[in-house]
Structure prediction request, 111 residues.
Amino acid sequence: MSELVQKLAKGDHKVIFPSRLDDPIQELRDCIDRDYVFVKFTETRGGTELGFRPDPDHSDFSQADWDNKTGKIRMAGNLSLDYVKVRCVGDIDISTLEGTGHLEILEEEDG
Prediction:
């Protein structure tokens, strides 16, 4: 297992929503509506940006107040990083588009 996966699976790390547009909060909302989101772990060499489909069983957007640009959301979804199946979890403050996140290593089922 790579050092990167091991590092991001231990404890929480600073994450941001990596915006590319003039209205980053609307961009985040649009990504959620399109069912594909991004988080960027900023404390790795060069930063590590991951994209995934939010898993409704592990994500929570109910605290978002999009009109007032406040609240916190949890985005979580599965992906592979360096050939390891992981769940990426990011807790983001909508007003700053910053928060904390980590990876959860998923066990492969025999079968």
Remarks:
- The chain has a mean pLDDT of 94.
- The longest strand covers residues 72-81.
